[in-house]
Amino acid sequence: MTTLARATDTLTRDALTVLQPGFAGTTAPDWLLRRLGEGLASVALFGRNVTSPEQVAALTAQLRAEREDVLVAIDEEGGDVTRLEVRTGSSFPGNHALGAVDDVGLTRAVAAELGRRLAAAGVDFNWAPSADVNSNPDNPVIGVRSFGADTDLVARHTAAYVTGMQSAGVATCTKHFPGHGDTGIDSHHAMPRIDVDADVLAERDLVPFRAAVAAGTRAVMSAHILVPALDPDLPATLSRRILTDLLRGEMGYDGLIVTDGIEMKAIAGTYGIERGTVLAIAAGADAICVGGGLSDEGTVRRLGDALVEAVRAGELPEERLADAAERVRALARWTTANRPGQGASDTADGDVGLRAARRALRITVAGESAPLTEPAYVAAFTPVANIAVGDETPWGVAAELGRLLPGTETGSFNGADAGREALAAADSRRIVAVVRDEHRHPWMAAALDVLLAARPDTIVVEMGVPRAQARGALHLATHGAARVCGRAAAEAIAGV
Predict the structure, then answer these.
(1) Catalytic residue among 96, 176, 188, 479
(2) Phi, then psi, of 409 in degrees rounded to 5
(3) Active-site residue flag, 260
(4) Cβ neighbourhood burial of 189 (10 Å; 0-12, 13-18, 19+)
(5) Which residue, 35, 169, 341, 380, is most buried by CB atoms nearer than 10 A?
(6) Catalytic residue among 260, 286, 305, 437
(7) CA dist., res. 490 & res. 496, Å (int)
(8) Is this model's pTM higher than 0.90 or not?
(9) In the β-sheet with 125-126, what is the strand arrangement from edge to edge?
(10) What is the pLDDT of residues 113-166, one digit of tens each?
């Protein structure tokens, strides 16, 4: 077995170069700094690594003191999926809200400002945007992370996002190729399968990725999904037909190809992370994302060793590994050359996220509805968060409504008795019921039935995909659960 800690040959350095690992803590551990000296070229940040933008800036400076051209990656979509503001909620609405507004100039401006803030914190590689067409309303993992269900809308906003963010010197990674929108399973838990013919894929799912390639996206992330029309045997992440023949060959893409998290169950539970890593690089992937769940030095050693041994055993061509490593280095050269200098903050537009959230708000009034002037009770009907979103980030309208109407209280409810429990907790106070994807959760719809039967003056705020019928004395659809979406809804409820 190769011991990466001692090996410094070209093969070992290339094996380290293609890994994009995470770590625990808010400062870089010694093992990570040591690996940077041995060839590791990328580091991934997750919510557990973030307490504030200033802390992230200090962390990235620590990493660059060891290796100046290190790629610092993050999963910062804005909206529901935020890492830079994981403790507070995002200052930017997510894709679905931007799609609801359908102003590509606004999308470009939001992405540019988000990119500016990432760059200011020393992050230069963002695993975003999601270019998935949310064609399956029951999709448990994409939803508001998508610009919408219309292919052309998703394509034009994907291109605008890529252009905006990369104007700030932050490389985008358009995901999840060849499209995760028509799935009913979360690939964090199992292997999704999309059973449509190749024509549907070409006309629906691939169009936004073509737009991203045309816009110059510096990276594309593969999906852990089985698409039999493209490859009946292997998921996209491990498929040469999909990554090399389709993405590189037919679509003419020449940038970096990154896998989704290799420890996700769709790959780890089927192939194992070592075998999955080797197969992904052999298929045409250039970088392995790992660290959302596995964030230790042992994982880096295992995956690096697997690549080295695969080359030595003739299972992975050394030239393919070298090509993958060179693509990582090429991206690092681009980010280094495009790193903003002093004065970059002169173009800041700190209010663009809130303006976008306000424009995305859709209000339906069932009857006469005056603004709330007294403290209310906010009943949050809380589904289990998917792993991409996580449960660390606060959501809802309670905090913002409490700021406008001091004395407002809140509670979180789920399950068969959620409606009755919320009624009891609210007592005589006016109820604001907050839901997230009511159409996907029968218990949530039943809770609203109970509330509205007893209290028809209840205000309903939908912070997911607004597919259920609008109901309540006042119904607000925010198209996402970012902090600014909650603020926009609270302002409308309080009439400010």
Answers:
(1) 188
(2) -120, 165
(3) yes
(4) middle
(5) 35
(6) 260
(7) 9
(8) yes
(9) 42-45, 71-74, 125-126, 171-177, 219-222, 256-259
(10) 999 999 999 999 999 999 999 999 888 889 999 999 999 999 999 999 999 999
